[in-house]
Amino acid sequence: MATYRIGVLQGDGIGPEVVPVAVEVADAAVRAAGLSVEWVDLPVGIAAYAQLGDTLPQYTVDALSTCHGWVLGPVEHHRYDPGRGMRNPSGTLRKLFDLYANERPARSLPGVPSRYAGVDLVVVRENTEGFYPDRNVLEGDAELRLTPDVVVSLRVVTRNACLRIARYAFELALRRADLRGRPGRVTAVHKANVLRRGDGLFLECCREVAAQFPSVGFDDLHVDAAAYFLVREPERFDVLVTTNLFGDILSDEAAGLVGSLGLAPSLNAGDRYAMAQAVHGSAPDIAGRGVANPAAEILSLAMLLGWLSRRHGDGAAAEAAARVEGAVCAVLQDGVRTPDLGGSCGTVELARAVRRRLG
Ligand code: NAD
After folding, report:
1. How many helices (DSSP H) and strands (DSSP E) are in the chain?
2. pLDDT of 17-42, one tens digit each?
3. How do residues 114-167 score in pLDDT, each as one tens digit?
4. N or C: which end of the chain has fewer CB within 10 A?
5. Do both 236 and 304 map to the same domain?
6. Looking at residue 174, which CATH number applies to its domain?
């Protein structure tokens, strides 16, 4: 029996509320599937800064390199002061471990009140470059304040990053087609009519990769049109692939379509490592009240188990992932809901209900 080492980084705000209960659920599922996991608690975020003077201590980074994957809770990045050396662990880890693909599914779940039924799409977001200033330069960051009134933000787009994110999207569409029993489709989302060079290169790469996947449908949309069609007829989408900032925005929009950010999981995947991380932030408006929805974090861990299963050819990890997803769906269908979904149950209560479902 394989033993996986999985790092646990709680993060800020609601992180210490949702991450530990999500780990408890995942642990129950891996045991039930006959898998062995060593959970490795590691310091990160504001608590790590207070204790060790660093939001991402080197000790944590070194330990992560010995892990098969990890879960990172949300970080309260707007409170981080770069002048005091407070790095954003999320962006830094994505870049450091080359977690180039951010996979963010949005799916209508049975029994969950939402604006639409029948949504089943995934936003695949490039994760290592684009408009994010902490990822684009070797030192400092890629936003320059030239005068008190003028700021220049540098955006990076490279052929290698575009090709590999496009490949990731098409491979995902193939897997989904197998599962759903109908052909997959990838939609490239861009703004090549204005960002002619950067998004032009992105689109060129998507078209090149599309030609290598003839069984997967392909089309493209300008990002403004994509935002419009997402709220108008989200059922038409399967896999959307896009650059970093557009993916960040559209995936929150997609989470709103199916009920709540509290249900939106995500995986940051590279070729060697993967990091589970819910789409939502630290939710300062509800932190400390015990009402945050832990489902997004639980489902993110299920995505990590799915990735481990593909990377290591391990059927037991796939079984654990399926058990977690099934239990979350069953509990929501039973009407066990946190306040973001109109219910009154708390974080721990929902997680406990999922654990009970796992047996
Ligand atoms: P947010 O996602 O934290 O919150 C947006 C809204 O969604 C809030 O009303 C919040 O209460 C609600 N919400 C979020 N998660 C929920 C959950 N699990 N259950 C129930 N409701 C939930 O976004 P924000 O307020 O823009 O950002 C707050 C902080 O989080 C900022 O510092 C931001 O930089 C950071 N952030 C971090 C990440 C990350 O670490 N992955 C992602 C986004 C934002």
Report:
1. 11, 12
2. 999 999 999 999 999 999 999 999 99
3. 889 899 999 999 999 998 877 788 887 889 999 999 999 999 999 999 999 999
4. N
5. no
6. 3.40.718.10
Q: At what angle do helices 295-312 and 347-358 cross, to 10 degrees?
A: 40
* CB contact at 8 A, 282 and 76: yes
Give me the domain span that covers residue 30: 1-102+260-359
Contact status, residue 124 vs residue 102, Cβ threshold 8 Å: yes
Q: Which residues line ligand 1 (CB under 6 A)?
A: 14, 18, 74-78, 90, 261-262, 277, 280-286, 292-293, 296, 340
Query: Over 90: is that where the pLDDT of 355 sits?
Result: yes
Cα of 125 from ligand 1 centre, angstroms: 18
Is 248 one of the catalytic residues?
A: yes
Give me the half-sphere count of Cα atoms (radius 13 Å) on the Cβ side of residue 248: 10
Residue 52 domain-assigned (yes or no): yes
Same domain for 136 and 219, yes or no, is: yes
Number of domains in the chain: 2
Residue type, 160: N
Given 41, 62, 178, 224, the catalytic residue: 224
- Is residue 334 among the annotated active site residues? no
Is residue 237 within 8 Å of 258, Cβ to Cβ?
no
